[in-house]
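Before drawing any conclusions, I looked closely at one protein, both as residues and as discrete backbone shape codes, quoted below without any editing:
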Amino acid sequence: MLINEQMEQIEKFSSNEQIIIEYIQKMGVEINSLSARKIANETLTSASTVVRLCKKFGCKGFEDFKKTYIHELRYLTSIQENINKNIPFTEKDNKYKIANNLSLLYQEIAKDTLECLSIENLSKATQMILKADNIYIFSSGSSINLAKIFQERMLRITKTVVLYESLDMQYIRSVSSQKKDCYILLSYSGEVTRIVRVAQTLKRQGVPTIAITSLGNNRLSKIADCVLNVSTREKIIYNICNYSSLISTGLILDILYSCCFNENYQKNLEYKIELEKRYELQRQKYSQKNIL
């Protein structure tokens, strides 16, 4: 979750913290030139309160907070939004308007995903997958279906990806993992307790992990060896549907598969075509048998 979104949950903060938050929001990127003591003086609070607040946002201290918060502000203003990512249509919209808005939503999320994506981390993640003896992908909620699609596609280029839907089984599997394994962990918030617990277990065992998650100082991002960020304009609670996170996560997985495919392009293409031919032949034989 972005710091900006955490700040909106104003009831979770003390009265002094609320005053500091309001001041920071008013100053925006201009806080870059301020110190914790300066903010404390301007808000009639204390520098220690400012630092404690920064730590509540998952930052190491005030300087880390400034860097993260300013990066997030620039991200949020980097692309002009034509469609509200949380409420892309209203009850007054007709069916054509809804269809058109969702089409635009897909386009804007795809563009935003590319803005978030680090090519350096993408290259690193590709090599981690290709070098692994065993590949696992863990998730929860709606993104499990995206994980299944990725699993099927990778199988078509001779890469077996293991998927456990049970959160208990995910943890049990992680405990017995080896250093030559590779885990892909999907969590938009990066705060799903059981996914974080799996990441922590893998970290202790020296097992490589790839996190596909939102921007910001979430717990999963801090633990993973490689982070691929998704579009982070979706509110976790206030939305019609989690359109944006699913579109973006699906696109990242498609890109990851394509990069793995491209590492041995001709061999993978030939294998996949031959596989499809065999599958089609079997399908036709089965259909003819049923007709007879």
